[in-house]
Design goal:
With about 280 residues, the protein is of the alpha+beta class. The protein has 2 domains: about 60 residues, no CATH class; about 210 residues, Fumarylacetoacetase-like, C-terminal domain (Fumarylacetoacetate hydrolase, domain 2). Helices cover about 15% and strands about 35% of the residues. The strands form 3 sheets. Strands 1, 2, 3, 4, 5, 6, 7, 8, 11, 12, 14 and 17 form a 12-stranded mixed beta sheet that branches. The longest helix is centred in the first third of the chain and has 8 residues. It is globular and about 55 Å long. The N and C termini lie far apart (about 35 Å).
Amino acid sequence: MKIARIGNNGSIPGFAVEHDHGKWVPLSAMGLEASSTADVIAVLPEIRAGIATASETSVVEDPNFLCPIVAPTKILAIGHNYLDHIRESKSKKPERPIVFSKFPSSLNDPYGEIVMDSELTKRGDYEVELAVVIGKKTRRVGEPDAIETVFGYTVANDVSAREWQKADGQFDRSKGFDTFCPIGPWITTSDEVRDPQGLALKSWVNGELRQDSSTKEMLFGVAHLIHYLARGMTLDPGDVILTGTPHGVGFAMDPPRYLAPGDVVECEVEGLGRLRNPVVGPTGA
């Protein structure tokens, strides 16, 4: 099942479920209300029951997709978690997950504009990532059971200001600028993802393939990350974990190739959809 957040022709944005390929039924048409991702998770049984009897008259075709992550209590991310990325960046393999946060204010639509302000950064970079959406309150879960806490998976671009990532000595600010976390286009429920450690990831800049790898390259897999994070904090429904990026990022090229206004970045995870985000200056030009 795919859950999206859509808006068309100035209508109030709302969550919807895919009824047929490319056809979406708003939850409101099924008499369901959901203002946050956690709300969607809470009514998932009703969604499954309602979609089977949904009327064709309520179907929305070719919707405008918006960010499906609304009001998370946490957006957590993992650094240096792909072996091929560790090799290309000549980094030391971490002994445990490197954890940082993306702020909710950085969330962006799957086709929204990424703002690169040259007064803030001249080294903007892209990172295709598998994003995990937590489906139940989780604390101190064992690794063998951790995967059962997942509601679904989606695609994320962990946009980064590389000079500040290095200068600040931590990742939060450099990866937390406004628009620096495109996510979507929808959430695919976990029952449709047989193995999160066997998915291809790719990214393109202006049509040029930059990243081409697999989640098999993860140093710490999805189950371990959930287990590790939940040892010290409660993960709530709707929380998101960005699980790291593979090789092919701009800063590791020779010479480095950073994002600039006019570029278009696309990020794809196998079976989960593709982001397509134009890069613009601070005025939208």
